[in-house]
Amino acid sequence: MPQSNVRPETMQRITTPELAEAFIAEQIEELRAQIGGNKVLLALSGGVDSSVVAALLIKAVGKQLTCVHVNHGLMRKGESEQVIDVFRNQLGANLVYVDATDRFLDKLAGVSDPETKRKIIGAEFIDVFAEEADKLEGVKFLGQGTIYPDILESKDGVKAHHNVGGLPEKYDFELVEPVKLLFKDEVRVVGKALGLPDSMVYRQPFPGPGLGVRCLGAITRDRLTALREADAVVREEIEKAVAEGKSAPIWQYFAVVPDMRATGVENGKRRFDWPVIIRAVNTVDAMSATVPELDFSILTAITNRILSEVPGVCRVLYDLTPKPVGTIEFE
Ligand code: XMP
C-alpha cells in the first residue's frame, strides 16, 4: 500500500548510514509489496531525488523498472553521460536514453521570453516522455522523486507536486514515491548508502529547464556550447577551491551567458564576443540569498580559464546581486 502523505512525528530523521540501511531494507519490502510483478516507469533526470528512487527501485524490482533519461540538450557538461554510466553500466538498469536535443532546440529557436521558454521545455519533455511510455507495454506504475518539501509546498498551493506533471490523463499510472516523507538531507544520506557517486548525491540544485534559462534570451547553439563549457569551469574551480579549503561550501554556483556581445582585443585584433557572468549564492530555502565573498584568486582562476578555454567569450563578470532584489537565476 502507498504510504500516507503525512510524516509521522515519531519518524526518526535519517542521519547515519545505519539508519539509511534500515530505511532501504524497509523500502525494498514495501516496494515489492506495492509493485508485485508489474512494470514501473521512471523519468530519470540524474538529480539526487530521481537517482535515489531509481537506485531503490533497481534493488527492489530490477528489470521490471524502465528508466527514461531525456537529454533536452540543456544538460550540463557530462551529466547525461554520468546517468548512463551509473545506471546502465554500473547498476545494470533498463535505461532508455533519448537524445532530444534537436527537438528542443528547434522548438526554442527565436523564443526569448523566459516563461515561454520554460513552458516549451516542460511541454516538450512531457511529449518525449509520453512517446517513450507508449513504446512500453503494460506499465502500471510511475516512479517519482517526490520529497517531503514537495508535499508540504503542494499542500500550501505553492507548486504542483506531480513531478512529471502534465502527463495526459490516459496515463493513469499509480505513483510510486519511496522518498516522499524524506527531507533533502535525508535523501542524500540514503543516496550515499545506496552507493551513488558523491557528484550525484551532493549535486547542487539545477532547475528543470536546465541551461535553457542561463543562455539568456533566444537560445543559440553556439552560445549554449560556450555556456556549457564556461559552467564546467566555474564548477570545477569552485569545487577545487572548496576541497582545498580556500572557500566554504557554496549552495549554488554556475555560469550565465547573456544575449549581447562585448568588445575585446587579442593579438592586436578587435573581437566582438560574449560575456560570461559567474553567479554564486548561499541560501537556506532559495527565498532569499546572499553572494559569497569569493577569494579574488578563485575569480581570477575562473576568468583566466574561461578566456583561454572557451571559444567566443571575451569577458568575465561576477554578479554581486543578493536576492532580493535579484533572483538566483537570471530568467
Ligand atoms: P530564483 O531564480 O527564483 O530561483 O531565485 C530559486 C531556486 O529555484 C531554481 N529555479 C528553478 N527550478 N524550475 C526548477 O526546477 C525552474 O523553472 C526554476 N527556476 C528557478 C533556481 O535554480 C534556484 O535554486
How would you describe what is shown here?
- The chain is of the alpha/beta class and 331 residues long.
- It is built from ten helices and nine strands.
- It has helices at 17-35, 48-61, 79-90, 101-108, 114-135, 148-155, 184-193, 198-201, 221-243, 296-309; strands at residues 39-43, 65-71, 94-99, 139-143, 174-176, 252-256, 262-266, 269-281, 313-318.
- A five-stranded parallel beta sheet has the order 3-2-1-4-5, sandwiched between helices.
- Strand 1 (39-43), helix 2 and strand 2 form a beta-alpha-beta unit.
- Helix 1 (17-35) crosses helix 2 (48-61) and helix 2 packs across helix 7 (184-193).
- The longest helix has 23 residues, at 221-243.
- 37% of the residues are buried.
Question: Can you describe this structure in just a few lines?
Answer:
This protein is 40% helix and 17% strand. The protein is built from 10 helices and 9 strands. The protein has a 5-stranded parallel sheet with strand order 3-2-1-4-5, with helices on both faces.
Question: Characteristics of this structure?
Answer:
single chain; 331 residues; alpha/beta; five-stranded parallel beta sheet; 10 helices; 40% helix; binds xanthosine-5'-monophosphate
